[in-house]
Design goal:
This protein has 7 helices and 15 strands. About 25% of the residues are buried. The longest helix is centred in the C-terminal third of the chain and has 15 residues. A hairpin with a 2-residue loop joins strand 6 and strand 7. It folds into 2 domains: about 110 residues, Rossmann fold (3-Layer(aba) Sandwich), CATH 3.40.50; about 110 residues, LytTr DNA-binding domain (OB fold (Dihydrolipoamide Acetyltransferase, E2P), Beta Barrel), CATH 2.40.50.1020. The strands form 4 sheets. A 5-stranded parallel sheet has the order 2-1-3-4-5, with helices on both faces. Strands 10-9-8-12-11 form a 5-stranded antiparallel sheet, with helices on one face.
Length: about 250
């Protein structure tokens, strides 16, 4: 990034606008060029001010955030969605938004989003993806089931479920049960492809078909709750994965 990111806030809640303005003031490479609580008026203001980055609420009167994005003509800034509703996270992918922030937004989470918008390394702590030794990158697990050793491709795993001293590996067509723990499985699965969503489940990110509130539905129709303490991490990981692809 070179220079300053010029920001505009579209948010109908005054208190939420105040928080975002205070956060923007604390970041040296951000400059606020405008704000609006009315999305209709904001369309014209964005066209005139031509910001680099838009902080956009979703649930607003007269026009929601996605309608706002579709209505932008000509200049199209980067967008960070800011909302109290987790339900729209996957829909945000379709609009190629930079990030998806859940209210109330902590400052460190705000920073992570703007650093992605600026194409800078994150200033907040995040464990780097472990790099396997050259020539040893695997795309499968070796799992013991009864007296057999099974080779299971990562792409075939939808969920891994803890059940007592065993784990259930949910595949497209069957379930494999093996003596292990979820922690051990988490260590064997690549973090770029899989994530923990509650105390009992690991999911393959590309197997997520829908997020409705705090419930994930997989491509095969399995429904799994998102743990309260895992919710922030789940949405962070989904948008971190998107940024790797873009």
């Amino acid at each position: 990034m070179s220079g300053i990111l010029r920001c505009f806030i579209v948010e109908d809640e005054p208190d939420a606008r105040i928080v975002l303005k205070k956060y923007i003031e604390r970041v040296p490479f951000l400059e606020l060029v405008g704000e609006s609580g009315d999305p209709i008026s904001a369309l014209f203001q964005v066209s005139n001010t031509r910001p680099d980055l838009l902080f956009l609420d979703i649930e607003m009167p007269d026009m929601n955030g996605f309608e706002f994005i579709r209505s932008l003509n000509g200049h199209k800034p980067q967008v960070i969605l800011v909302t109290a509703y987790p339900d729209y996270a996957l829909q945000g992918y379709d609009y190629q938004v930079v990030d998806y922030l859940l209210k109330p937004v902590p400052f460190d989470r705000f920073l992570k989003g703007v650093y992605k918008a600026a194409n800078l390394p994150a200033a907040v702590d995040r464990k780097p993806e472990p790099e396997p030794p050259k020539g040893s990158q695997k795309s499968y697990l070796l799992i013991k089931e009864n007296k057999k050793i099974l080779r299971i491709s990562f792409d075939d795993i939808e969920l891994v479920e803890a059940t007592g001293d065993y784990v259930k590996i949910h595949l497209d067509q069957r379930i494999v049960i093996t003596h292990s723990t979820l922690t051990k499985m988490e260590e064997q699965l690549p973090r770029l492809l899989f994530m923990r969503i509650n105390r009992s489940f690991i999911i393959r990110k590309n197997a997520i078909a829908q997020i409705d509130g705090n419930e994930i539905t997989t491509l095969n129709g399995r429904k799994v709750p998102i743990g309260v303490t895992y919710r922030g991490t789940v949405f962070d990981e989904l948008y971190i994965q998107k940024s790797y692809k873009s």
